[in-house]
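Repro:
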Amino acid sequence: MIPKIEIKTIAEIKEFQEKELQLLLKYLDSRSPFYKEWFKKHHINLKEILTLEDLVKIPVTTKEELQKYNNDFFCVDSSKIVDYVTTSGTTGKPVFFGLTDKDLDRLAYNEAISFACSKVSNNDVIQLMTTMDRRFMAGLAYFLGARKLGAGIIRVGAGIPELQWDSIQKFNPTYLIAVPSFLLKLIAYAENNNIDINKSSVKGVICIGEPLKNQDFGLNILSEKIKNKWNVDLFSTYASTEMGTAFAECEYQQGGHHHPELIIVEILDENDKPVKDGDEGELVVTTLGVEAMPLLRFKTGDIVKAHTEPCKCGRNTLRLGPVVGRKKQMIKYKGTTIYPPAMYNLLNDFTEIENYIIEINNNEIGTDKITIKIGAKKTSMDLLEKLKDHFRAKLRVSPQIEFISIEEMNAIKFPKMSRKPMLLIDKRK
């Protein structure tokens, strides 16, 4: 199930995208309150935007604009919206997206061809180990994509190793969709309960939220730990709510393939200029075929490298390598992207908390670890549970929380040589 456009020549793919870009610009100019004003404010003559190279004439769109003018990005009447999703609120204020029937069809198509890229077929059964609720786009996309592909799906949800193994043994899924660090918990449960994981039906895992590879596509610490115990194929993916599109690995696992019918990709430097081929830069995307809330030159905040040499699978699309780094202080934690200000806002909701500091580190499997150290007037298990529940409700995850004395906290928060209090200590290598 390789879309015809993905095996066309580079020149043919470019020509196709330029035609799609013309349609998008006309649509935005007639339907988008934000972009209509954006074009006017920056004196953009759309007749001059004919090629992909011409895109640099249009200023980029940032997450700050999405947050500030969220409603103005909608191009359809609210009566056409059939599903609402939000980002994780990782920059302090979630952005909400509405999807029309057409957008849900596009989401299903995206995931179906992404699954197929990773060798999933209509003969497979997929076990979904992530939420479909909490306004989370990804879980919905996986379900719709599996349905369009014709594969079976088991909606187990996140966590609970016992239930996951019960479902594996009952329904014999061939693929799992999971945050890779959770696979270590599945392995530990299997070992403690005499389950031979390598005799299970599972042959592959579509991994989300955490990196599996180093920049040379070799296994990182996390994937090595998994593969040393469990002989399954691990496929990396990269996606976001804003893109509504995934970059999925094929069987050769040399980066996530671009779907040119769904998204235009740019990789820009600090001055918003295209980087040289093979250089790292920030991923900037333009969505194609989105009806309710299309985005033009949207800065994702992720630093990536594109790979353009031919792939053995036959696709001629570019491939994105593992995310190199995060702009500013972006954190990837248990499959969720988090920014520290979002955590500050949640902590400030609690009057019991006198002061706090957030510490970011790498854990033993190479993924990000968050420890929130709190100085509170009165500590209790009740406060700890309230904090964890609040984080789960707002950010979908709960970091490690430690209570220390207010005096000790002040010593950390106000170091002698600092001119302002510290809220974040980033110890990641």
